[in-house]
Amino acid sequence: MSLTENLDSIQQRIRAACERAGREPSSVTLLGVTKGQPPEAVSEAARLGLNFFGENKIQEAKAKIPLCSGRARWHFIGHLQSNKCRDAVELFEMIQSVDSLYVAQEISKRAEQASKTMRILLEVNLAGEASKFGYRPEKLEAELTQINALPRLEIHGLMTVPPYSSNAESVRPVFRQLRELKERAEQMLGAPLPHLSMGMSGDFEVAIEEGATIVRVGTALFGPRKTVKSNAAEI
Fold first, then answer.
1. I need a labelling partner for 176 at 20 to 30 A (CA). Which of 7, 20, 43, 184 fits?
2. Are 34 and 54 contacting, i.e. CB atoms less than 8 angstroms apart?
3. SS3 of 16, please?
4. With 0-12 CB in 10 A as exposed, 13-18 as middle and 19+ as buried, what is 153?
5. What confidence tier does 229 reach under pLDDT thresholds 50, 70, 90?
């Protein structure tokens, strides 16, 4: 299928999932994951009306973003090392994968130097998988108020990458746990957190039913990447 057909299909599936959940389709943002995709694919998707894109690697983003449509708005969704925070602040309007107080402090410092306020999501590793990054829920709750106090950061919500499964229903409890954790975080902060970034190519409809506001879709949109490992979750 063509990019146009893929995008239309995904948008129809988003609308159907929202209808099942009693939500407005406008409450869900489709983020096109562009890892391994050329700038031409990004620009074509932007021409078709997709506004938001996500990159996993800083080096790839540095090379790619300047070559893409100026209409594209970029989120960083991969693991962020502290020595890459300056580049992340410069390149992206949101960092979805903050997984420690130290990294949050470094982002705030670099944002201060850039005279910029950085929107962030806190990444949560709900299943405790050793192969994945992200906060354990209890650690996030312990550090939440310290991160919220950092002067150049705005916490906009939570993000997760669930355990890989060929059955989308099996990860529904993970999405539900993230929504419940967000509700606890809102109570701690006394303020709403507007975003839950959860759901990928194989499970974004279930994520929407459980409250996702951002779904990160790469394979279903752009087609499979040659570099994807056979038993890894396809974003």
1. 7
2. yes
3. helix
4. buried
5. very low
Domain 3-222 classified CATH 3.30.70.260?
no
Q: Taking the CA atoms of the chain, what radius of gyration do you get in angstroms?
A: 17
Residue matched to tokens 């992340």: 88
Q: How far is CA 2 from CA 5, 32, 45, 223, in A?
A: 5, 15, 11, 9
CA dist 4 and 19 (Å) reads: 23
Query: What SS3 state is found at 140?
Result: helix
Spatial CB neighbours of 59, under 8 Å, sequence gap ≥ 6: none
Residue that the structure tokens 């890459």 belong to? 84
- Position 225 scores a pLDDT of 72
Tokens standing for residue 47: 């021409």
